[in-house]
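Lecture 7 notes: from sequence to structure.
We start with the chain below.
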Amino acid sequence: MVNTVKTLLKSVRQYKKPSLITPLFMTIEAFCECLIPFFMARMINENVLAQTGAMQHILKYGLILLLLATVSLTSGVLAGQFAATASCGFAANLRHDLFYKVQKFSFANVDKFSTSSLVTRLTTDVTNVQQSYQMCLRIAIRVPLQFIFAIIMSFTINARLAWIFLAIVPLVGGCIILIMRFVMPFFRRIFKKYDALNNSVQENVGGIRVVKSFVREKHETEKFEKAAGEVRNDFTRAEKILALNNPMMTLFINVAAVLIAYLGARQIITTSEANGGVLPTGAFATSNLSALITYGVQILSCCMMFSMVFVMITMSFESARRIGEVLTQESDLTTPENAVKEVKDGSIRFENVNFKYSETANNYALSNITLDIKSGETVGVLGGTGSSKTTFVQLIPRLYDCTEGNVYVGGVNVKEYDLDALRKEVAVVLQKNVLFSGTIKENLRWGDETASDEELVRVCKLAQADEFINSFPDGYDTYIEQGGTNVSGGQKQRLCIARALLRKPKVLILDDSTSAVDTRTDAMIRQAFAKEIPNTTKIIIAQRISSIEHADKIVVLDGGKIVACGTHDTLIKTSDVYRETYEAQTKSKADESAESEEGGDK
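Predicted structure tokens for the same chain:
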């Protein structure tokens, strides 16, 4: 926990000053509040004993009490303002640090945390820590100080009766610890269930079209209600236990007040009877009893406030731990010292590469991969579902590091490159196309922020996207909804290809990125590539052999291994897997043509 706190406190940064000033004002406020009952008792005692000038005493102590109340109020207000500034700033820095850390994560790091979990940590968890931090700056500083001041003042008034408070405090502390012991396990479970709840919402909203297409609204509602119900049930159990806190504290306060009132009254009566019904000067009087009861209430109120702080800290403890997990997580991929910052060309070499997603995995996703790709070559990658085609190309821009062996780009081991420099020269159009909310121009300029409008048009023509873009009323200023929901799958793919081309990379990887476009458009894209970017190494993962049959080299993957490699003509003769796939696709096309002709004759 100590290490977690140290990690989180690094995010305070420029808010150290208000964080330090807040406790100072809280100290002043606590000190003034503890002096008020003392001077109240003095004022009453001196007025009772005074023969003349009672009003003078009232004015004198009235001014003192007014001053103390004013200073206390001012200090409390200032402490609140500085605490709010410090806690909000701390939370803002914490969110920034978390988001920045996630941006630096490798794919392996992201795989460790689910998306819904990261969202919860950036929102709910940070809010819990923010509230806890503000409470610590104010109440956690004020409570012990006010407790100490009240104890000292109560002993100053009557040491014998003050011991009652010290006797009750351990009982209060024991009850608080007992409550926390039962509550903590519930809070640990709650935040894990928050992740499941957020995941349910995220899946439903992201796949709302599928949900509605299959009329599964009821199923999704039931799934959400189950996740929400589990959070509610654990919160209810925790709150039921925490609900014991206030009545327990009230009981202790009332018991202490009754004991002080009873024993104090007895002492006053005994002293008065011993002196013929008159209290001697300096004796324990009714005003002292009133002040002592006030200090008792303050002492036990401190215990109550401390329990509130403890509850808040208990709730935020799990949040702090989860945030600390992300902040202390080191990326699996780092840029080495004296890193190479220039990629010479687009040549690629796999040298005895083996890869698995985790050290504990039993099987390798890729095994014994050895392959040479010359700069400017077009390489097709073919394989069935689960043959690790995507994994194979993700090693090139170092989205993952190979477990064994080496991958070279431009003659240099990818581990020796500056990560940014390598990835700027290796453009990847991923299997899952992602567009961001904004105009088409803004989305395209992810490839190059400084690109001119003419360059945008050029790459869109290469990707066969210019025609459909110009069909929109706003052309390149057309607004793309979040996730690209207002464009078709094929249009989205072509925009993503254009975005990658804008980088002017030395290596272009298309991970099944033309699956949603028709065969004619696919052929036009390939022809444009061959004509306009002949020096760029192109790696094309495809399910259709027609998309890769003219490639310089075709790699056939099966079970994470290269089972064949060569040109289309060579593989037709030597690879059973490739030939069977080709014949199946050719037969399918022939059947479609025959059906079309029959329909025409009819």
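Points to note: The mean pLDDT is 83. Residues 348-432+506-601 form a domain with the Rossmann fold fold (CATH 3.40.50.300).
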